[in-house]
């Protein structure tokens, strides 16, 4: 049914402004209307939404009186009137011919609709021509372009085109093709005088209808002339579209020079895409057809006809008011009936403009006769003009399907042609035909408008691409097709901008999500590819045409149809329902290429950047000042051994680095090195491309770092910083996001230099990676060198051979990054990144401190003629320290302190002191960095390293005796050891508890215990008896030992627990030995002697218990037990009573039997060594191997032999003494005593008869056997000895 009269005014813009109506809400009274037209029993669905209306609100028309003479012009004739629009300013009236590129003008205005939402964009006249094809014998000539699923239709006036080409020389290839293949007899019919007469009558009628000048009686008051003028002046051209339009009411008043403004204000993130204006060349001259690429229609309507969505431009005047709110006026000659073509015209016009009624004014020879009101749904049933609306619907669907199935290539210009009087419709691909004429490849006038449209659609999609990545494939295809259409020398700006947008599709700073990747890869491939290969694949896919049951057939006649893409054999086929079906897949290869490989994505980005740079560089004319560089010649990325480089050059490089790292102020005032003018499109585009290249190389460098390819990583970060250097040379102001990114580059450069310093062994491989260059990198460098020498960061990115210099460069990179982050533009934006840089600064300063500390230790070891830090285990080091102590105590029964040698002060070189100062300075700075970010764990680690430095200083200050032996423990040593202890305690305080970081806590705890132990050991072994009393020394040793024991964590189950147990056992052993010595040497004070004896027994007992818990310290256990036996022997020597002596001897023998566990462990290790020797078929015997090679498998056989040398005489002595005492005893022995005596004698006899030259394994077996025999008789198993 038609819309009722009360629906309101169909085109009422609010405040005379352009409007876009979408969704359920309308702007104005009723700018959106829906209508359904019924024809017979079938219903035709039609819906019109006004997107833009330049006309004022409809006014009522003037009803002319009968006998009004339309041949006489009204007073206002041909005056501009917004009510009539362009229909009133030309004698062509409402049926004026379509403007060239009119669909492009609409597409530019409503860019959001292009690609997906709309099927067709065209002038309403072109739509009507297509739907009248089966009814009309007239010729048809239209240009068709495809953008996504949208088809753009424009009239292509071949005759006028050829007239122009005869003057300009263009289109000669098409003229020859047309003359060869098309009926040459057909000529354009000249318009008769009658035709122009009827057009003039129509124009005058329309002007009479808006102003009756006394001869008409208007039904209601319309707008007065003042109001009309006011409305026209107030009319504005702004409405919500993606790009600024050049079309407005004022421009429509007079034709202007054909030009198109490519508003490329594509803004994405923090980057603006391209320069703002690109003037495109004109195709037609000014005049009737010279409106250019503008939207010159009075109204633009989104018309949905059945399931076809069309954006239509219309200039039909609409009148309304009173009882008839929206009507169209038509003038008909009363002597001529309305034919079917005219009826379809009227019906489609009213449907597209949503006008419910038609007012027909009949005249005879220009004299008004009568008016007739006709409803829109009744038009198909007029006399002599009856047609089926369903057939028109079928025609529309078939034409659209035909075009969509054959116009498959985006960017190509298709020509839909039907000759006058012919039933055959042909479709040609003019782009392909044009390309065959090589000398005229770029003469297609549609090429540039199509390319601009593709670019603008892609730009519009980019605005929302961040939220909807499914558009990425579409954007990429649009831009690639855009670039294919344009010549780089003629349109460098669009080409450069398109390539930049292509590079922007790859978000290098975001991780590729699995879900997002799947959606992007729908139909795509993850395999490695090149851009050229993928474009070829697209080309092949896009050339596939649909052929549904033979509906489309290629030309069978080589003379006539060989060049046609598709042919409709008879226009009658278009009336058959669903004769043609569109089966062509929209963009079959537009899936966005997603790769999980970062390097592949970055390489794609760099390829687009390079193409963009080439386009920009090609547009810059000034070449005189450019460096003579060949893009095919590699630019060397030199490496340098900085050990020979002077301090002056280094400082100069550092100052350059810090200067370039800072923010710049002000725009450049002069042309750049390549001749670019600041503010030009080349200038803006190069900034974007340089920055994008810098980001791509940064991501490549970061990926190479993660793969441990540090030479490659340094090469990439060098290229990234060179891009940034060129960016700084071109830009006058560095925005905060650029400075922030630069700080990240400097941080990464520092990381790489640090890794290179720590992995010096692979330097040859790194050098090979660093020196490699791709052709693409060379060409990008060539473009960079047009703007800058790119040397500002050479110091930071050279591959040096000196680890010290690499550490130095790393620290300077971090310092430069820190200076950037605390600068004024970034100080409030970068708290997280500042913490990371401070952590890196603290780390590199720790590394440099450790480096100089190790250098000092190496100097010290070289001076002493041996390495200070032995690679042997802690167990072996302590064993050597304690062995000689044992010999003095047990074998020779000598005093604890050695005689004071002649002391010589050990000199500390200036180089060592310099290393100490550097190391300490870096540790101190590192601690401040970590304290600034509250990192107590790393602060504790640096305090721990500082403590180690103090220990190295202490070792350098030891005294030497005259024969180069170790002298007394010096005050300087004590000072530095105490400083070390202070730093370790500070580290413990910084950590507060083990729960905060157990590994660091355990490390600091171990170092603190070690320092106390070393201090006590040196005080004990090299006692400063020349400066301190023995009692004071013993007190200090005891205090240090007990503090070391305090930090021995015996409870926590960790990897260091055996070491703690061994150290605790060693401490108890040393304390026992010290109290043993004091007990032996103490004279007079009996109370003190008893105290020393008690403490010695206590510590011996604890030492034995701890050594028993260890499985790999048999020698230490044996030594401790032998010392304990010696302590018992010394106690017995002071006793006079035989009973007391016998008791002491029995106790000593029980202690001696506990050595069985140590000998069992020794025997087990000896057997394992023997087994290994047998398996390897060694020719040497076990004993000779022992003597020749020394320690094997953790067992020091020489030490075992020495301990056995002490064990045998001590064991024999005890057995002999106990036998003597038991034999000479006055009391009668019991049976038990007799058995025990026999055992002692038997054991003693076997011990005496033992072969002294027997293998060690045999001797140890004998000892185990004898001790086992004694244990069974004495019951010493209760003492804690473990049975095997």
UniProtKB/TrEMBL annotation:
InterPro entries: EDRF1_N, EDRF1_TPR. Residues 528-550 have a biased composition (Acidic residues). Residues 235-249 have a biased composition (Polar residues). GO terms for biological process: positive regulation of DNA-templated transcription. Residues 43-561 form the EDRF1 N-terminal domain. Residues 1-38, 217-259, 514-562 are annotated as: Disordered. This is Erythroid differentiation regulatory factor 1. It comes from Astatotilapia calliptera.
């Amino acid at each position: 049914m038609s819309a009722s009269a009360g629906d309101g005014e169909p085109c009422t813009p609010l405040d005379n402004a352009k409007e876009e109506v979408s969704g359920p809400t309308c702007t104005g009274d009723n700018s959106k209307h829906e209508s359904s037209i019924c024809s017979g029993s079938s219903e035709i669905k039609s819906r019109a939404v006004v997107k833009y209306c330049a006309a004022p609100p409809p006014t009522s028309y003037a009803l002319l009186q009968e006998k009004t003479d339309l041949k006489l012009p009204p007073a206002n004739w041909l005056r501009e009137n917004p009510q009539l629009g362009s229909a009133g300013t030309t004698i062509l009236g409402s049926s004026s011919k379509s403007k060239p590129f009119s669909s492009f003008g609409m597409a530019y205005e409503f860019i959001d609709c292009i690609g997906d939402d709309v099927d067709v964009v065209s002038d309403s006249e072109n739509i009507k021509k297509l739907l009248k094809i089966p009814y009309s014998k007239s010729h048809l000539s239209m240009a068709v372009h495809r953008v996504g699923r949208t088809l753009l239709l424009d009239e292509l006036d071949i005759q006028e085109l050829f007239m122009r080409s005869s003057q300009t020389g263009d289109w000669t290839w098409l003229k020859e093709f047309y003359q060869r293949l098309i009926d040459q007899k057909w000529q354009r019919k000249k318009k008769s005088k009658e035709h122009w007469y009827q057009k003039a009558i129509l124009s005058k009628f329309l002007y009479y209808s808006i102003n009756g000048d006394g001869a008409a009686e208007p039904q209601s008051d319309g707008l007065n002339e003042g109001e009309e003028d006011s409305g026209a002046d107030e009319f504005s051209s702004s409405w919500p579209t993606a790009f600024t339009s050049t079309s407005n009411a004022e421009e429509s008043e007079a034709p202007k020079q054909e030009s198109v403004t490519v508003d490329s204000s594509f803004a994405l993130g923090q980057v603006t895409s391209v320069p703002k204006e690109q003037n495109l060349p004109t195709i037609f001259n000014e005049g009737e057809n010279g409106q250019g690429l503008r939207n010159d229609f009075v109204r633009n309507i989104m018309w949905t006809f059945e399931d076809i969505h069309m954006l239509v431009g219309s200039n039909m005047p609409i009148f309304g008011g009173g009882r008839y709110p929206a009507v169209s006026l038509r003038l008909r000659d009363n002597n001529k009936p309305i034919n079917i073509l005219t009826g379809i015209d009227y019906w489609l016009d009213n449907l597209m403009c949503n006008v419910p009624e038609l007012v027909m004014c009949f005249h005879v020879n220009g004299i008004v006769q009568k008016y007739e009101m006709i409803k829109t749904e009744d038009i198909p049933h007029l006399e002599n003009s009856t047609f089926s609306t369903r057939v028109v619907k079928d025609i529309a669907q078939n034409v659209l399907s035909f075009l969509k199935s054959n116009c498959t290539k985006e960017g190509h210009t298709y020509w839909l042609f039907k000759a006058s009087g012919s039933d055959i419709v042909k479709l040609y691909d003019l782009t392909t035909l044009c390309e065959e004429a090589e000398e005229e490849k770029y003469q297609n006038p549609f090429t540039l408008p199509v390319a601009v449209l593709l670019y603008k659609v892609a730009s519009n999609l980019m605005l929302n691409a961040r939220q909807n990545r499914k558009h990425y494939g579409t954007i990429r295809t649009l831009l690639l097709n855009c670039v294919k259409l344009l010549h780089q020398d003629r349109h460098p700006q669009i080409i450069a901008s398109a390539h930049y947008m292509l590079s922007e599709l790859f978000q290098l700073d975001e991780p590729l999500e699995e879900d997002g990747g799947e959606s992007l890869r729908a139909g795509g491939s993850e395999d490695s590819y090149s851009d050229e290969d993928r474009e070829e694949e697209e080309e092949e896919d896009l050339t596939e045409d649909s052929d549904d049951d033979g509906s489309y057939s290629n030309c069978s006649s080589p003379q006539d149809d060989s060049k046609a893409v598709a042919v409709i054999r008879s226009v009658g086929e278009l009336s058959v329902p669903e004769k043609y079906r569109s089966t062509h897949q929209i963009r079959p290869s537009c899936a966005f290429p997603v790769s999980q490989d970062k390097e592949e994505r970055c390489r794609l980005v760099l390829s687009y950047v390079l193409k963009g740079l080439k386009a920009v560089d090609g547009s810059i004319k000034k070449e005189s000042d450019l460096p003579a560089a060949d893009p095919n010649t590699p630019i060397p990325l030199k490496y340098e051994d900085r050990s020979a480089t002077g301090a002056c050059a280094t400082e100069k490089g550092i100052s350059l680095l810090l200067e370039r790292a800072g923010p710049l102020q002000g725009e450049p005032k002069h042309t750049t090195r390549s001749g670019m003018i600041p503010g030009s499109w080349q200038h803006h585009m190069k900034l974007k491309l340089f920055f994008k290249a810098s980001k791509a190389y940064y991501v490549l460098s970061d990926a190479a770092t993660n793969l441990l390819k540090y030479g490659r990583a340094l090469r990439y970060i060098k290229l990234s910083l060179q891009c940034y250097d060129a960016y700084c040379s071109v830009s006058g102001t560095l925005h905060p996001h650029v400075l922030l990114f630069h700080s990240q580059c400097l941080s990464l450069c520092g990381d790489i230099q640090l890794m290179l310093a720590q992995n010096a062994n692979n330097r040859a491989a790194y050098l090979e990676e660093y020196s490699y260059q791709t052709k693409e990198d060379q060409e990008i460098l060539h473009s960079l060198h047009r703007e800058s020498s790119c040397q500002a960061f050479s110091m930071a990115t050279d591959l040096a051979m000196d680890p010290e210099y690499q550490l130095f460069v790393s620290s300077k990179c971090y310092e430069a990054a820190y200076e950037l982050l605390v600068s004024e533009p970034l100080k409030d934006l970068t708290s997280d990144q500042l913490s990371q840089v401070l952590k890196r600064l603290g780390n590199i300063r720790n590394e440099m401190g450790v480096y100089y500390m190790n250098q000092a230790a190496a100097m010290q070891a070289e001076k002493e003629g041996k390495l200070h830090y032995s690679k042997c285990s802690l167990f072996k080091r302590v064993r050597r320290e304690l062995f000689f102590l044992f010999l003095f105590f047990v074998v020779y029964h000598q005093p604890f302190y050695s005689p004071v040698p002649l002391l010589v002060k050990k000199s500390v070189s200036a180089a060592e002191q310099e290393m100490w100062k550097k190391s300490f300075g870096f540790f101190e700075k590192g601690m401040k960095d970590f304290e600034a970010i509250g990192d107590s764990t790393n602060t504790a680690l640096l305090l721990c390293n500082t403590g180690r430095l103090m220990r190295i200083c202490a070792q350098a200050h030891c005294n030497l005796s005259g024969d180069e032996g170790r002298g007394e423990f010096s005050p300087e040593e004590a000072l530095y050891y105490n400083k070390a202890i202070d730093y370790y305690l500070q580290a413990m305080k910084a950590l507060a508890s083990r729960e905060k970081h157990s590994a660091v806590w355990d490390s600091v705890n171990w170092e603190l215990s070690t320092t106390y132990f070393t201090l006590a050991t040196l005080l004990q072994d090299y006692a400063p008896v020349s400066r301190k009393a023995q009692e004071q020394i013993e007190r200090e040793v005891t205090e240090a030992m007990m503090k070391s024991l305090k930090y021995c964590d015996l409870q926590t189950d960790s990897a260091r627990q055996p070491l703690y147990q061994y150290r605790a056992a060693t401490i108890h052993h040393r304390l026992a030995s010290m109290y043993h010595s004091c007990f032996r040497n103490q004279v007079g004070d009996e109370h003190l002697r008893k105290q020393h004896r008690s403490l010695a027994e206590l510590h011996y007992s604890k030492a034995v218990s701890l050594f028993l818990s260890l499985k790999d310290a048999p020698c230490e256990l044996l030594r401790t037990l032998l010392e304990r036996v010696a302590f018992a022997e010394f106690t017995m020597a002071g006793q006079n009573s035989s009973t007391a002596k016998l008791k002491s001897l029995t106790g000593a023998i029980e202690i001696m039997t506990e050595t069985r566990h140590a000998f069992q462990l020794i025997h087990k290790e000896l057997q394992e060594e023997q087994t290994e020797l047998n398996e390897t078929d060694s020719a040497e015997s076990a004993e000779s191997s022992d003597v020749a090679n020394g320690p094997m498998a953790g067992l020091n056989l020489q030490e075992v032999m020495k301990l056995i040398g002490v064990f045998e005489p001590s064991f024999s002595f005890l057995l002999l003494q106990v036998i003597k005492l038991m034999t000479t005893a006055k009391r009668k022995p019991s049976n038990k005593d007799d058995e025990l005596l026999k055992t002692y004698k038997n054991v003693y006899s076997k011990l005496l008869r033992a072969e002294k030259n027997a293998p060690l394994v045999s001797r140890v077996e004998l000892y185990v056997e004898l001790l086992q025999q004694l244990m069974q008789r004495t019951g010493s198993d209760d003492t804690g000895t473990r049975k095997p």
